[in-house]
Amino acid sequence: MLNEERVILMTKMESFAEHEGRKDTKINQYFRSDYVGFQVLKSVISATVVYVILFVSYLLIRFDTVMQNLYNLDLVQQGRRFLIFYILLVGGYSVASYIIYSYRYAGMRKNMKTYYSNLKRLNKMYEKE
């Protein structure tokens, strides 16, 4: 005979495994520090690529001005300005990535904990029979 509570629990668990479970299972393979660190590293690399694209775009858009003032520019001062902008961009992006991926990891742990508790509950239902 079918146990209605067991069928509902199994359906809920299968729904989780099909949708959020795939993503959470991949995240669950890592320790928190490894997962967050790897994601922040990817964010730093992405921010560097974006900065290079912005820098090259700036040079191409203002090419005539840069070439006219090339000998009059204080290159050290300009270098500092670009470096400060780079540090702010990468720093802000890294902090945001750290917060977002820490939050995602915590959510994954909560979801997996619920899944495993449901699995234990299902096992106890089978043992009763």
Short structural summary:
This protein is mainly α. The protein is built from 5 helices and no strands.
State the separation between the terminal residues, measured CA to CA: 11 Å
Q: Given the structure, what is the number of helices?
A: 5
SSE order, one letter for each helix or strand: HHHHH
Indicate how many domains the architecture comprises.
Answer: 1
The chain-level structural class is mainly alpha
Instruction: Tell me the number of strands.
Output: 0
Average pLDDT confidence is 88
Rg, Cα atoms, Å: 26 Å
Overall geometry: rod-shaped
Unreliable segments (pLDDT under 50, ≥5 consecutive)? none
Largest sheet: none
Strand content: under 5%
- Fraction of residues in H or I helices: over 70%
Can you walk through the features of this model?
The chain has 129 residues and is an all-alpha fold. It has one domain. The protein is built from five helices and no strands. It has helices spanning 4-18, 20-28, 32-61, 63-68, 75-128. α1 runs antiparallel to α5 (75-128), α2 (20-28) crosses α5 and α3 (32-61) runs antiparallel to α5 (75-128). It is rod-shaped. The mean pLDDT is 88.
